[in-house]
Structures are given as C-alpha cells and as structure tokens.
Amino acid sequence: MAASIEDVARRAGVSIATVSRALRGLPDVATATRDRVLAAAAELDYVASPFAARLASGRTNTVGLVVPFISRWYFGEVIDAVETTLRMAGFDLLLYNLGDEAGRARFFERMPMRKRVDAVLIASLVLAENEIDALLTLGCPLGSLGLEHDNFLSTSIDDAAGARVAAQHLLALGHRRIATIGGDPDDPMRITPPLRRREGFRSALREAGIEPDPQLEQLGYFTLAGGLEACDRLLALPERPTAIFAESDEMAFGAIRSLRLHGLRVPEDVALIGFDDHVTAEVLDLSTIRQPVPAQAHDITTRLLAAVEAGDDEPPTVDVVLPTELVVRGSTDPSRSVYQS
Amino acid sequence: MAASIEDVARRAGVSIATVSRALRGLPDVATATRDRVLAAAAELDYVASPFAARLASGRTNTVGLVVPFISRWYFGEVIDAVETTLRMAGFDLLLYNLGDEAGRARFFERMPMRKRVDAVLIASLVLAENEIDALLTLGCPLGSLGLEHDNFLSTSIDDAAGARVAAQHLLALGHRRIATIGGDPDDPMRITPPLRRREGFRSALREAGIEPDPQLEQLGYFTLAGGLEACDRLLALPERPTAIFAESDEMAFGAIRSLRLHGLRVPEDVALIGFDDHVTAEVLDLSTIRQPVPAQAHDITTRLLAAVEAGDDEPPTVDVVLPTELVVRGSTDPSRSVYQS
DNA sequence: CTGTTAGCGCTTTCAA
DNA sequence: TTGAAAGCGCTAACAG
To answer: Within an 8 Å CB–CB cutoff, is residue A228 touching chain B?
Structure first.
C-alpha cells in the first residue's frame, strides 16, 4: 500500500500533526524539523490522501465547472483555460456537461456537486430563478462566465458593443442592406450571446437610420451547418443583402460555404464578418470581433479561487468586462482579400 | 449545515448503518425500513458526503481521463462521451490535460491522480515505457483509447485499415499520383494516429504497384492551418497530385481552402478524402473514413467501470477494435458533387 | 434484518 | 515549536 502520514511521521521521528503542518507549509515548524519531514516524505514517495484531508478540513480543493456543451469551440477553450488555472493552483476540476434540456433539468434538480466543490463556475448560461436558487444552496462562491448574475462573480465581454462594432464596420464600408445570422433567443438551453449580439447589431443599424428588417435576421443556431442554411435563406430573398454579420465565426464558416456554393464572391458580392476570432478565422480570411476566451476564463477562475481562499462564501457581486477587438481581414476589406475572385 | 447520516438515522428511527445500507440499495434491508429511510433522506434533502464515503470504503467513484489536448475535435468528442458514460454510472470525471511536452513530463512525474481515482483512461497517446510504469504504480485498471498497450484495456479503430480503404477508394477512381497530408510521426506529444494511417496509406499504394513518393507525403500536424500549408506545398510541386488523402478531416478542411485559393476544382482537378467524419465534413461535402468516436469512448469507459466493479485492479488486456466506414461524398465523386465548378 | 463498534487518513484544537 | 487527542461522516465487519 501507499505510504500514509504515519509512515512519514515514524520515519521523520515526529508526530503526524507535525508532518501535516510541515507538508502544508504552515508556520511554526522549525526549519530542521521541516526538512526532516520533507526528506522522509520524498523517500516514501508520499502524497496525502485528498479524501481524508477533505473530510477533516471541510475544504475540497475542487471547483465544479458547468458547461452546456463540450464539443463547441468556445467551451473547449473555456475548459482548457479553467483546467490549466485550477491545476496550477492545486485544485481539481469537476466537469459537468448539461448536453440538453433534460440534462439541464436533471442537473439542477439533483445538484450533483453538493458536498464536493469549493466553488462553482457556470459557463455562458442564462440562469432561471430556480436554477440560481439551487446553486445558492451550495453555500459556496459562484462564478459566471459570459454574463452577470446577482450574487455571482462574473467575467464577460460586452457582446452588444462587439456586435455594434461589427455592424458599424459594415456600415462604414457603405453597406446598407445588412443581414445577421444569429442564435435563437428562444433556445431552451438559453446560452448567453444570442440576445445581446442581436441587440447590439440592431442598435447600430438604427443609429445609422436603418430599421432592422426581420427578413434579414436568420437563425444559425451557433453551428456551421446552421450558418450555411441561414445564409442560403438570405440569398434566396428577392433582394439579397450586400453584407452579413454572423454572430459567431462557426456560423460565418457556414455562410462562406453557402456563398461559395452560390457562386458569390466575398467580399465583392457579399461582405462577411463573424464574432469570436476562432483559430480558423484567420485561415479563412474572415473579419471578426475577437474576444479573449482564455483571459476571461482565467480571470473568473482566479477570482473564484481568491474567494475560496478568503473563506468568502458569498463574495460581493463583481462584474469584470474584458474588451473585444475588431479584426479586419479579407472578408470585408477587398484590399486585404486573399480570396479568388 | 447540510444533513448528515445521523440526522437521517434519527428521523427514520434506525441506526446509521441501516441508513447506509438502505440508501446504497444493499440487500438485507426490510422494505418497510428502506422506505422509512428513503423518506427521511428525502425530507432532509440528504446526500452522502462523497469524501467520507471514499475514505471509509477506499473507493473513489472517480475516473481520471488524460488527454493531450482539449480544443481539438476528437478530444472534445471523447470528453463528452466519457463524461456522459461516467455520469450515468454515478462516477465523477477528473480531467487532466497534458497540453504540451512540459505538461506531459510534469504529469507523469507527479502522478497527480494518485489516491484519487478508481481507474484511468488515456486518450490517444503513445506511451513510453516509463509512462506506463508510472501509471501501473496507481494499482488500478488502466484504459487506452485509440491504441493498445500491454496491461491496458483498449478500444480503438484500425487506423491502418481505414487509411488503406481511403487510398483504395482513390485508386479505384483511377488516381495514380496520390498525396497524403498527415501528422508528424516524430511529434514529441506522440499521439496515436499519424504512424498507422501513414502506414496503411503506403501499403495500399504498394499493393497497387505504386512506390510511395516522399515528396507527396506532407505534414499537416492535424490542424486546419497545417493542412492548408501542406496542400500549398503539394500544389507547388512540378507535377502536382491528382488526389489527396488527408489523415484527418481538419487537415482536409485546410486542403479544401488551399485548393480553392489556387483556383482548383474538387474533385475535377484534385480529389480529396479525409478521415474522421467530423461534423463539418458533411457540410463541406468531404468524402471521409468515418470513425465512431462516441462509441469507442463509451466502450472503453464501460469496460473500465466493469473492471472497477469487479475489483479487478489488473484486468487482463483486452483490445476491442471498432469498424470504420468509407463515406463517399462529392470531394471524390463528381457525380455526387455539390461543389461549383 | 438491524445495531454496535472500529476504523479510513487526515486536520485542528488544546496543552505542554 | 511540538504532541496528544478528538473528530470529519461515512463503511464494514461482527454480533445479535
């Protein structure tokens, strides 16, 4: 069997209490004693049993991360960054994937993280009242990525502002008939961006004296295939748009494909801008609104850990908003285009 | 504070041992007693403390999943499927992302899963001797996804056979000058597919009496951008290939982009086939070799859990190989093409 | 079928 | 600065 704290204590000639203190770097341990303990632990290849430690201390050293999906670009980036940040802080990551409505309902009903995490991070979910209540019963710091919630720490971008910038970029290029491909605000999974990006887009048009045309707002469901179909519908209109704002790069990729299949050139026939700055956007020469996903994930995770460290079970709501950035590439600017005509 | 087992025992008028048995569904509990316990637990909204249970039983009800990357299609699918399977079995998922060589070295040195998992699943990694030894010290069932290892349960596909089928498909279409875009067999991260897919590709050519031409084998590093550049290099050859086999769909997507930028038609000028059947392959009308990622992940996870359940710390090596399937789309078959010419 | 009693391997007072 | 001892909240014999 693996060595226990008693083995180390015996070997170092001290009590188990001293071993515990020495190994955790607590003060009030003589340097010589600490060295002896460290040496003994190293020789025995000792690691503390996390479960015993958790039971005794009440701290789990684990953070729960809740995502609606795993296999989408944004969430992959989030999981990656959160995992890295937690790992460096010596925390474990407990991952919960909602998957669909049924999974979401089951999750909030059973609250499977009860008694097993020090903090919870929710990624890009618009939470209902009862869902928030369920999380609050956990009695630990709560974090939200992508939008604010009362009683949550949050880190996000200004989706509306980003969408405005995208629309304004197209307007500045002289476009007046601008379409958007977006998520479904009524999607039962209620993920964050749809509502706000749509809103920002519309406000930019209105400021330019253009009344948003419902026909020019198509649903792409945040998938490539959805973006393709939405673009097909736009191109089937009697008067097609001269520019398209896709509320995510993945939908923009689908739009590129659709435009190609229709024999239309980008940006000469139709200009296109996305949102996210997906790794693939550069390759496809897609203009976009860049959002810093790893930075957001790192920021919220770090602050959540700080709250745990401070023993602050209900930290005051603090919302951090990170900037987005317009990235102009060939899909809107012909002078930069690497597309074939 | 949350209710403990004693609260439930008191409320149900039984001992804590009975509560434990009743709640875990053990036999030898009178139905009436069980009902009373269940009712009391429900009223108190009781859930057992996993840490106390783990400490007492020695079982962690947790499986460690080790992946080299998170933000790649294959691994996203794997994480998703493993998480779902574990969740349904009441197990927690502990996710470890290697990220790069340094992270990989750190992982195998510290073995951060020691004393915290009942089984370990390694995704698509070619393990070195010392890495295998490190894992064996965990003394729990080990699983490998994507290739076999001694002393591991494994589930994979026959990468070589899949690649052969891809090459044979191109040969059957009359192509003789066939290129491949693959991973780097010398990649320090040593992920699985590169070696075998390359091998299968070459053997198919040889059987057709064609000696593989090193110039026609380019590295795409399993990324879209890498695939694009590899394809650029192929098209820059004095005599360009008439068909390309990309060892992953993501690299094939890059190749599609490259071909487009060169003004070449698919499949008229250059035929293209990928490997994986990425969700996007259908949208891009890409022929490919379909591999069942969720099924593989589910199979290995289920068998790993069975070994845990059986208390079988060193289950005999059993390698399951799931079939791949040729999916013909427009990128190789002009008659099915939806591409613009 | 049910209760009693030891632990599981740590952390954390409290004394010394 | 260190040690003794009392738990943390369960599970698992062992009796009865």
So the answer is: yes
- Is there contact between A44 and strand C, defined as CB under 7 Å from any strand atom? no
Q: What is the pLDDT of residue A340?
A: 43
Contact of A280 with chain B, judged by CB distance below 8 Å, is answered with: yes
Using an 8 Å CB-CB cutoff, list chain B residues near A2: 114-115
Residue A139 φ/ψ region, left for φ over 0, alpha for ψ in the -120 to 50 degree band, beta for the rest: left
User: Does B257 reach chain A within 8 Å, measured CB to CB?
Assistant: yes
What gap in Å lies between CA A163 and CA B139, rounded to an integer?
53
User: pLDDT (tens digit, 9 = 90+) per residue, A241-295?
Assistant: 999 999 999 999 999 999 988 999 999 999 999 999 998 898 889 999 999 999 9
Q: What is the DSSP letter of A316?
A: P
For the record, the structure tokens of B273 come out as 């086939």
| Tens-digit pLDDT profile for residues B21-71 | 999 999 888 999 999 999 999 999 999 999 999 999 999 999 999 999 998
Average pLDDT over chain B, rounded to an integer: 94
Question: Is the shortest CB-to-strand distance from B132 to strand D under 7 Å?
Answer: no
Q: Tokens 């590899």 identify what position?
A: B230
Of the two residues B334 and A154, the one the predictor is more confident about is: A154
pTM of the model: 0.94
pLDDT digits (tens, 9 = 90+) for A81-117: 999 999 999 999 999 999 999 999 999 999 999 999 9
The span from the CA of A250 to the CA of A255, in Å, is: 9
**SS3 state of residue A262:** coil
Residue A183 forms beta bridges with which residues? none
- Find the helix or strand (DSSP H, E) in which A243 lies: strand A243-246
Counting Cα atoms < 13 Å in the Cβ hemisphere of B232 gives: 12
CA distances from A319 to A36, A142, A300, A314 (A): 46, 12, 9, 14
CB burial of B256-280 (b: ≥16 within 10 Å; e: otherwise) equals bbbbbbeebebbeebbbbbbbbbeb
State the DSSP H helix or E strand holding residue A160, giving kind and residue range, or none if neither. helix A159-172
User: Is B156 in contact with B322 (CB distance < 8 Å)?
Assistant: yes
In Å, how far are A81, A121, A142, A325 from A292, measured between CA atoms? 11, 18, 21, 9
CB B50 within 8 A of CB B56: no
- Within 8 A by CB and 6+ apart from A33, the residues are A12, A14, A18, A22
Please say if the pLDDT value at position B341 is more than 60.
no
CB B69 within 8 A of CB B75: yes
**Chain B environment of A280 (Cβ under 8 Å):** 224-225, 253
